Amino acid sequence: MTEIAGSLPALVLRRLAISEQVAAAKFGAGRAVDDPVREQRELARVRNLAREIGLDPDLAAGFLSDQIAASKQVQRRLFEQWTEHPGDRPTGGPDLSVLRAELDGLTVALLDRLAATGSEPLTPPETPDELKQEPLRAAFRTLAQRRS
Length: 148
Known about the structure:
mainly alpha; 6 helices; about 70% helix
């Protein structure tokens, strides 16, 4: 697998950008934002990956749960926008399986960066995009609580 470059905050921002594409794919296919089966499978995978790299599995699972919550915030906002303004709806969505493969790679990169951060405080990066501010706070919730 090719290593994904970027700092932890940059990777979180990249994941949020992919969440917008996931929303388009799900909306176009008539799928729900929530996918509890996939979420549980990913949390189990993250716990195993964390053990392999010497990272606390609870921290890793909490951090991934935060990423999922942030992604859902982005997706729900877009679903609402597209429902209220049908002219804004995307035409044809990206392939969800391709996006999920990219997210899987990002998850590994995020865990690697998390393992390398040590115990310094980690807070959400600043963004000029007001619509991403709350999802970013959600994405860093576990890290801000654990390291404050």
